[in-house]
Amino acid sequence: MPNTDSTNPYVALREAKIARNEARLAQLGLLKRPSLNSKSHVVPPNRRAKRRSVDQETQEPVRRSRRISQQQAHPGNEDTCVPSETSQPRREHVRNTNDSVTKSEDDSLVSLLFAPGGNASIEISTSSSTSVRSVDIDVDALILGKNGVLGRIMEKSGKEYVINKAFDLSASSRDKQRLAGARLSFNKYCGIQEWHNAIFLWVNLGYNDSAVVNDFLDNGKRITWFGGSRMHDETAVVHKLLQYGSEATSSKSKIVLWCRKYMIHSKSFTPYVCLGRLSYHSHVPRSHPLSFVWNLVDAEALRTHPEMDVKEQYQSLILM
Q1: pLDDT of 76 higher than 50
Q2: 102 domain-assigned
Q3: Which of 95, 104, 125, 199 has a CA that sits 20 to 30 A from residue 219's CA?
Q4: Where is this region: Disordered (predicted)?
């Protein structure tokens, strides 16, 4: 038979301790502890909000602008939003489009404003219709024409000057009319530049810190060239290179070679020199970077050029 509360020693001990504690509390003058069986009444907190004073209701809004914090407030403007200094519109930087073509090459996409006299201005362009790739040029006129550039060193450094010069000398009349006063865009960090019907290859010579080094072979009749890091066998421009190179003959080609020398003492490059047209010799498929060897179509014309400056320029490049 189970123990009742009166006979359970645990319950008896518990009640004795409760009685002792209550007696001690009464002796100290403290309130008597409520009985466990009684329900305590919880008084809900007073939720009535304090009434705002009349002064608080008519108080003017706090001014946050340090610039106008000393100005006197005008009656009736409490609901007017006063702009702070940080809310003023941010002034955007405006690119200067009147820089000379001799400006240092610090943008990957530059554009040229062609004007009489061959002057140019640099500006970012987003229109594909003004891209160099939309322009047709006469390669033979550029290389061998009355003002041909074969073996000539450009008057100014940088690819933009070469693009400007090529446009002035050999662009089709249709494109010159279409782009009169317009800006041509091109990527100056790429080692290859597409035109609509031709390709320029850019080569740096004497810069041995590069991952790849371009060399002349067979006494200047051939040259090595390496594609960019993103170029592979299926790249569209590689297909175009192979097509143009294979179609080239001993007197015709759509690929033009531009070289420049790295000057160790000044740690800078010389202006570009045009070494004429190229034809395909060989390449290494699936190599990275893609490795090509090109024939210099105009090697003999450079070697036997009637102007001594041109011959010496050519010899100085192939012997580097």
Answers
A1: no
A2: no
A3: 199
A4: 36-103
DSSP state of 109: E
Closest CA to 122 of 144, 152, 102, 143: 102
Whole-angstrom distance, CA of residue 40 vs CA of residue 17: 22
Judge whether 27 lies within some domain.
no
Asked, for residue 124, whether it belongs to a domain, the answer is yes
* Cβ–Cβ under 8 Å, residues 152 and 166: no
Residues in CB range of 149: below 8 A, 6 or more apart: 142, 143, 165, 166, 169, 274
| Residues 26-70: tens digit of each pLDDT | 888 775 555 555 554 555 555 555 555 545 544 555 555 444 444
* Residue showing tokens 């490795």: 291
Whether the upstream peptide bond of residue 289 has omega within 30° of 0, thus cis, is yes
pTM of the model: 0.61
Q: How far apart are the first and last CA of the chain?
A: 115
The residue segments making up the domain with residue 138 are 109-318
Q: Which of 124, 117, 122, 119 is nearest to 103 (CA)?
A: 122
In angstroms, rounded to a whole number, what is the distance separating the alpha carbons of residues 247 and 62? 80
Block residue for tokens 């200094």: 85
- Smallest CA-to-CA distance from 141 within 197, 189, 92, 193 is with 197
The CB-based long-range contact list for 82-86 (8 Å cut-off, 24+ gap) reads none
271 occurs within a structural domain: yes
Name the amino acid, one letter, at 276.
G
Measured between alpha carbons, how far is 12 from 86 in angstroms, rounded to an integer? 75
The span from the CA of 52 to the CA of 29, in Å, is 42
The total number of residues shown for the chain amounts to 320
For 294, counting Cβ atoms within 10 Å of its Cβ (0-12 exposed, 13-18 middle, 19+ buried), the class is buried
Q: How many domains does the chain have?
A: 1
